[in-house]
């Protein structure tokens, strides 16, 4: 990958501005000028680890069907994306946070929050970032800041902050792209191919002080099966009246126990549409006002298929079954469900910013994300195939009215202009979150009827008000320190949990508030013109989300009610970094450490009051993570035109304290944190053969990891397991003429079958054609 001057500046921890093309970046701690492109909106004054990639690198090197794909080769990052258009499970993980911890990272686009902080992770409710509201075609660049070292962000930044900067035209321009992908998939009893179509068009211009951008995007995707019906071999009995069947696939579960795979389900067909309009106006005195309107709709159907066949060769989709002479529990609608999901979401973003780069700059930003419509329909346990395909009983879950809003005021003061020793920043913020999720039963037609009797109703609100400030102080030649703090007051209110199944629950939870202070400190020393040493430390407080406080993980069992008295996660994070400019690239080594108290995880403990086991989100006393991250980013390596990016991360993440347990007391102590592998690595090599041709090879590796707190899932290479993997991706792109370009690529070239509870995609072929006017 060819590093831009902005990427080099970010890697060395320098501040960034725009400058005329003839200027060169300064090799000194202080001002670094950037030629071309949009500068990142992340706080580049913080001498912490940052990585970036621009539009040209993305287009030439990555098979990207959505904005999550752009992060494939960033150090220590992984998005749990299961198929193109994955709308409910694509969680971002980082150095010390796994793919079940979506609330421990932040994703923005042009300052608009895309992270869904209504909840954490996946399950009955899923909370990935809203990747679909940014398309790869509109990204001008993406930047990542690792760790909670800027006071400008809440404690959810403890893992990483991702910032997408999207395009705004300077002249009339238009773009269109048509893409296609194909995934032949073989697993258990499934042997099929799944395809995806993707079309995108955009138009924008600038006239005087006005600029505008309009983009439309449609994706039509098929996923591989994501879940499977199973029976443990040990549950079979020698007596019973089960129908003798064939087709069950023998396997072992994640605890290495023998089981049968009976069928495949949650095979999605999704159609997603996205329309975005942006308009900006430049006032005198270098003040810009901008407004963004985004509309996203998703229609998804989840299908199931039985592997079982009776003596006549017909599919068996219901009733007791007999396998090899043993009778097993009946096949029901829970084994082979059908799903129908539909959603319409809106996003609004408004900002006014001054951009003088003088003594004082300011900005005001606001955003609103609205679940205008969000329905999930599913067949009932008693409603089985094939009849379920045309109707019958089911449930409908309605999340309409859910959403969040943000408001922030911020100022930057440079007492002596850009060459002064101090750059002082500060601001106030308010973030509001509202969850409303009602599940009702349907006795008639699950596909079309409105909800009937209430099954569960959960919801509530949280609010975070923050005051922050930080001072970047060049206190001596070649030295800079950034000292900051963030004061936060968090409230949770209007919480309620209702479950109608016995024993019924109908509770309105009391309001609660907490206040915390999070100090930040970072220091850098440019020992030579090509070497920078950096140290950073910061406290992060990640408050419980609405769903963690009030959401019920089951609609039929009050043993799965969450805890409204959860304590916030409190983390101290630090890193020591050495970065060296080696002429044709930047080499970096970072030691990192994180000590988290009261981590939020789902686990089972014994409730002495209720005299029963309770499985819900609980506080895990202490998790400690330490490790080292090595990264390299170079251009024209070995020979001209060859760009390389590579990283290697070792992490030891252990549970040190936990008053709760999964099976017996103490069974999680000393075990690895879920979904944080000991080793992970990535690499991307791009060859610029000519002005027309570019090829790239990427590789991604992840070592052994676990999904459970007690690490009992010792077999990762199966359904519900988390497996190691090594996959190779390739891409070739040709610029046909000034207008047209085409690309072909393959992800998972080596066709590795690997898992993160669900199976990841197998070998997938990509083709695209693009026109730029």
Descriptive report:
- It contains 3 helices and 41 strands.
- The chain has 773 residues and is mainly beta.
- The chain has a single domain, classed as TonB-dependent receptor, beta-barrel domain (Maltoporin, Chain A, Beta Barrel), CATH 2.40.170.
- It has a 26-stranded antiparallel β-sheet that branches.
- A hairpin with a 3-residue loop joins β31 and β32.
- The longest helix is centred in the first third of the chain and has 7 residues, at 5-11.
- The model is unreliable at 1-38 (pLDDT under 50).
Summarize the structure.
With 773 residues, the protein is an all-beta fold.
Task: Looking at this protein, list some descriptive labels.
26-stranded antiparallel sheet, Maltoporin, Chain A, 5-stranded mixed sheet, disordered N terminus, 3 helices, 773 residues, mainly beta, 2% helix
Number of strands: 41
Number of helices: 3
**Which percent band covers the strand fraction?**
over 45%
Q: What would the principal axes of the Cα set say about the shape? A: globular
CATH superfamily membership, which one?
A: TonB-dependent receptor, beta-barrel domain
Give the fraction of residues assigned to helices: under 10%
Structural class: mainly beta
């Amino acid at each position: 990958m060819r590093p831009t001057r902005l990427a080099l500046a970010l890697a060395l921890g320098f501040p960034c501005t725009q400058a005329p093309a003839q200027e060169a970046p300064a090799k000194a701690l202080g001002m670094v000028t950037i030629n071309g492109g949009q500068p990142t909106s992340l706080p580049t004054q913080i001498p912490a680890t940052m990585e970036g990639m621009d539009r040209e690198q993305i287009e030439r090197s990555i098979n990207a069907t959505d904005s999550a794909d752009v992060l494939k080769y960033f150090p220590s990052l992984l998005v749990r994306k299961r198929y193109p258009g994955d709308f409910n499970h694509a969680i971002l993980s980082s150095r010390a946070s796994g793919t079940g911890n979506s609330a421990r990272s932040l994703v923005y686009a042009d300052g608009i929050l895309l992270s869904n902080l209504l909840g954490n992770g996946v399950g009955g409710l899923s909370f990935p970032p809203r990747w679909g509201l940014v398309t790869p075609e509109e990204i001008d660049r993406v930047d990542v800041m690792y760790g909670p070292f800027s006071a400008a962000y809440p404690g959810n930044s403890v893992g990483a902050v991702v910032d997408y900067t999207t395009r705004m035209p300077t002249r009339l321009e238009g773009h269109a792209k048509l893409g296609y992908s194909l995934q032949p998939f073989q697993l258990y009893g499934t042997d099929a191919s799944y395809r995806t179509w993707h079309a995108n068009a955009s138009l924008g211009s600038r006239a005087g002080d006005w600029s505008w951008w309009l983009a439309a995007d449609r994706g039509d995707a098929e996923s591989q099966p994501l879940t499977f019906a199973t029976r443990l071999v040990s549950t079979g009995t020698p007596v019973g009246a089960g129908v003798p069947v064939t087709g069950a696939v023998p396997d072992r579960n994640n605890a290495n126990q023998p089981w049968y795979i009976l069928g495949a389900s949650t095979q999605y067909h999704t159609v997603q549409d996205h329309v975005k309009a942006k308009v900006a106006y430049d006032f005198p005195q270098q003040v810009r006002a901008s407004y963004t309107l985004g509309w996203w709709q998703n229609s998804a159907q989840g299908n199931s298929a039985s592997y079982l066949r009776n003596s006549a060769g017909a599919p068996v989709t219901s009733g007791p079954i007999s396998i090899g002479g043993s009778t097993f529990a009946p096949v029901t609608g829970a084994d082979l469900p059908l799903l129908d999901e539909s959603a319409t979401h809106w996003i609004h973003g408004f900002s006014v910013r001054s951009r003088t780069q003088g003594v004082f700059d300011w900005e005001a930003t606001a955003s609103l994300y609205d679940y205008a419509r969000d329905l999930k329909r599913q067949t009932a346990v008693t409603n089985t195939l094939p009849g379920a395909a045309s109707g019958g009983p089911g449930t409908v879950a309605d999340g309409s009215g859910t959403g969040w809003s943000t408001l922030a005021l911020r100022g930057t003061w440079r007492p002596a202009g850009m060459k002064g020793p101090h750059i002082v920043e500060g601001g106030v913020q308010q973030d509001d979150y509202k969850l409303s999720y009602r599940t009702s039963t349907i006795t008639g037609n699950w596909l079309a009827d409105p909800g009937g009797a209430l099954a569960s109703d959960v919801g509530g609100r949280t609010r975070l008000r923050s005051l922050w400030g930080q001072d970047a102080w060049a206190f001596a030649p070649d030295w800079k320190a950034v000292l900051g703090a963030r004061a936060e007051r968090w409230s949770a209110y209007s919480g309620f949990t209702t479950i109608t199944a016995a024993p019924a629950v109908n509770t309105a939870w009391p309001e609660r508030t907490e206040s915390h202070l999070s100090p930040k400190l970072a220091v850098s020393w440019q020992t030579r013109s090509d070497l920078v040493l950096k140290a950073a430390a910061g406290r992060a407080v990640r408050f419980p989300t609405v769903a963690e406080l009030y959401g019920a993980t089951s609609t039929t069992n009050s043993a799965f009610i969450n805890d409204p008295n959860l304590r916030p996660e409190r983390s101290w994070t630090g890193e020591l970094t050495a970065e060296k400019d080696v002429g044709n690239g930047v080499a970096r080594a970072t030691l990192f450490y994180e000590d988290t108290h009261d981590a939020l995880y789902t686990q089972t403990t014994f409730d002495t009051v209720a005299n029963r086991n309770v499985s819900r989100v609980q506080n895990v006393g202490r998790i400690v993570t330490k490790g080292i991250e090595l990264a390299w980013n170079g251009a024209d390596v070995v020979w001209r035109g060859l760009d390389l990016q590579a990283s290697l991360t070792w992490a030891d993440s252990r549970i040190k304290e936990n008053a709760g347990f999964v099976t017996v007391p103490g069974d999680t102590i000393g075990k690895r944190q879920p979904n944080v592998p000991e080793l992970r690595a990535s690499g991307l090599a791009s060859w610029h053969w000519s002005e027309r041709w570019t090829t790239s090879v990427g590789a991604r590796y992840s070592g052994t990891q676990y999904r459970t707190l007690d690490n009992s899932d010792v077999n990762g290479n199966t359904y519900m397991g988390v497996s190691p993997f090594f996959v190779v991706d390739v891409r070739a792109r040709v610029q046909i003429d000034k207008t047209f370009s085409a690309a072909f690529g393959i992800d998972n070239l080596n066709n590795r079958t690997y898992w993160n509870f669900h199976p990841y995609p197998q070998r997938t072929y990509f083709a695209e054609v693009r026109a730029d006017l």
